[in-house]
C-alpha cells in the first residue's frame, strides 16, 4: 500500500484537497452517522466535476462528483480527490472504490483512511489491485479534524464529547447565589446555538436544568435540533419544564435503582424516552450512558453541564474538546467554579490540554482546546 506516498505528490494536490474539505463541510448536520466527505475530479489542473455527501443514506461524494462530470471521456485521464478513503463494501449504497475502477480513473488522492473496520484500508487495496495510483495523507490532519466525531466513534466506541462552559474572567460560572443568566453576551449565546446544531446531541444535568429551566434547543440561528440528553438520576426535573416541551427529541437517563415505574410511564406518555443505567460512586455510570448513545449511532455530544457533571466527565477521561466562553467580568472567589474537585494535588499533575484557537464574539472570548 502506498500510504502517505510522497513520490506521487503534485504541487496542486493540497489545493484540490482543500476544495474537498470545503465541499464535505456542506454535509454538516445532515449526514451523521456517516462522515462528511467532499470530492473533486480534476483533468490537467481543471476541476471537471465535484460533489459531496449530501444526506445520510444518499449517494457518496465520489458518486456525486463523478456523476457531475459532463466530459466523461476525460475520466481515464483524470485524478479524483476525496478527503476520506473510498468505501469498498455494500452499505446503503454500492462501493465507491468499484465505481472509480469501473470508470477507469487512473489516480486517486485521499486525505485520510477510514477507521470503520468495514473499510479501513480495504478501499485503498481495491483501487491498487486494479492498478489505480493512490496517494494518501494530503491534508491528512485537516481531513481527520473535519470528521473528528466520526473518527472518535469508530476508534473509541463512544461519541465525541465536547464540554462547553460560560464563565467570567476569574473563572466563575455563577454567583454565590447560583445565578448565571447572563454571564456572556448575545453574540456568544448565538454561537452556542450554532454549536448545538453541529452536534448530534446536547447533554445537561438535572441541577443545571432546574436552575435555568434550560431548553437546550437551537433558537438563535438556523440549524437542526439536536437530541436532548438529560442526566436525571431520580427523575426530579418537573415534567412541566421546558426541556420536555416536545420541540426536540429528548432522552432522560435515570438510575435503575431510583426510577419510579409510575413516573417513567408519565414521562413516556409525554413522548420522553427514559433509559435506566447503573450507578458509579453515587452518580449515573457515564460510561454506560455514552455506550448507549453510541449504540444509537450518536456520533457527537456537546455537554452544557454544571461543575459536578463537568468534573465527572473530566475525571472519567471522556472529554475530547472544550469550548470556554470568557466574559470580561469578575464574580470573585465566592462564585461557583466551572469544575468540582479534579483531585489535583500537585502542580505537576494537572489535567492537560492543548489550545486550538480563540475567537471574539462581541465582548467575549471563546477559547477552544483539546484533551491530550
Put the structure in a nutshell.
This protein has 372 residues and is α/β, with parallel strands linked by helices. The protein has helices spanning 13-24, 61-67, 96-102, 122-129, 140-146, 148-156, 186-198, 206-212, 261-269, 286-295, 307-315, and strands spanning 38-43, 46-52, 79-84, 107-112, 133-136, 160-168, 201-205, 227-231, 250-255, 273-277, 279-280, 283-284, 300-303, 321-327, 353-361, 364-371.
The topology string of helices and strands comes to HEEHEHEHEHHEHEHEEHEEEHEHEEE
Task: Kindly report the average pLDDT value.
Answer: 93
Sheet with the most strands, sense and barrel status: 9 strands, mixed
Question: Biggest sheet: strands side by side, in what order?
Answer: 10-9-8-7-13-6-14-16-15
Given helix and strand content, the structural type is alpha/beta
Q: What fraction of residues sit in β-strands? A: 15-25%
Uncertain residue ranges = 1-7
Radius of gyration: 23 Å
Work out the helicity level. Answer: 25-40%
Cα(first) to Cα(last) distance is: 30 Å
What's the total number of strands?
Answer: 16
Instruction: Specify the number of helices.
Output: 11
What general form does the structure show?
Answer: elongated
Give an overview in words.
The chain is α/β, with parallel strands linked by helices. The protein contains eleven helices and 16 strands. The strands form three sheets. It has a nine-stranded mixed beta sheet with strand order 10-9-8-7-13-6-14-16-15. A five-stranded mixed beta sheet has the order 2-1-3-4-5, sandwiched between helices. A hairpin with a 2-residue loop joins strand 11 and strand 12. Helix 3 packs parallel to helix 4. The longest helix has 13 residues. The N terminus is likely disordered.
Amino acid at each position: 500500500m502506498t500510504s502517505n506516498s510522497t513520490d506521487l505528490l503534485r504541487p496542486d494536490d493540497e489545493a484540490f484537497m482543500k476544495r474537498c474539505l470545503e465541499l464535505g463541510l456542506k454535509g454538516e448536520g445532515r449526514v451523521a452517522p456517516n462522515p462528511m466527505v467532499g470530492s473533486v475530479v480534476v483533468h490537467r489542473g481543471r476541476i471537471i466535476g465535484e460533489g459531496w455527501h449530501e444526506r445520510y443514506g444518499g449517494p457518496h461524494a465520489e458518486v456525486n462528483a463523478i456523476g457531475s462530470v459532463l466530459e466523461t471521456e476525460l475520466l481515464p485521464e483524470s485524478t479524483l480527490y476525496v478527503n476520506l478513503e473510498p468505501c469498498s463494501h455494500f452499505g446503503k449504497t454500492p462501493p465507491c472504490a468499484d465505481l472509480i475502477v469501473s470508470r477507469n480513473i487512473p489516480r486517486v488522492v485521499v486525505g485520510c483512511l477510514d477507521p470503520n473496520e468495514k473499510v479501513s484500508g480495504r478501499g485503498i487495496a481495491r483501487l491498487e489491485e486494479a492498478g489505480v495510483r493512490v496517494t494518501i495523507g494530503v491534508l491528512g490532519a485537516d481531513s481527520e479534524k473535519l470528521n473528528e466525531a466520526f473518527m472518535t466513534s469508530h476508534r473509541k466506541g463512544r461519541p465525541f464529547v465536547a464540554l462547553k462552559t460560560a464563565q467570567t474572567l476569574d473563572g466563575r460560572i455563577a454567583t454565590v447565589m447560583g445565578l448565571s443568566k447572563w454571564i456572556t453576551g448575545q453574540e456568544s449565546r448565538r454561537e452556542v446555538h450554532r454549536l448545538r446544531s453541529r452536534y448530534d446531541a446536547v447533554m445537561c444535568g438535572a441541577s443545571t436544568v432546574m436552575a435555568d429551566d434550560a431548553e437546550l434547543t437551537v433558537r438563535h440561528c438556523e440549524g437542526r435540533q439536536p437530541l436532548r440528553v438529560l442526566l436525571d438520576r431520580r427523575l426530579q426535573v418537573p415534567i412541566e419544564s421546558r426541556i420536555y416541551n416536545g420541540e426536540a427529541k429528548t432522552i432522560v437517563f435515570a438510575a435503575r435503582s431510583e426510577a419510579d415505574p409510575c413516573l417513567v410511564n408519565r414521562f413516556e406518555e409525554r413522548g420522553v424516552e427514559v433509559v435506566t443505567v447503573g450507578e458509579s460512586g453515587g452518580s449515573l455510570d457515564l460510561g454506560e450512558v455514552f455506550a448507549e448513545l453510541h449504540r444509537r449511532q450518536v456520533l457527537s455530544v456537546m455537554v452544557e453541564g454544571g461543575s459536578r457533571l463537568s468534573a465527572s466527565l473530566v475525571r472519567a477521561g471522556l472529554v475530547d474538546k472544550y469550548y470556554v466562553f470568557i466574559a470580561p467580568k469578575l464574580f470573585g472567589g465566592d462564585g461557583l467554579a466551572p469544575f468540582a474537585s479534579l483531585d489535583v494535588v500537585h502542580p505537576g499533575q494537572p489535567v492537560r490540554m492543548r489550545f486550538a484557537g480563540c475567537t471574539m464574539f462581541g465582548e467575549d472570548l471563546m477559547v477552544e482546546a483539546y484533551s491530550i
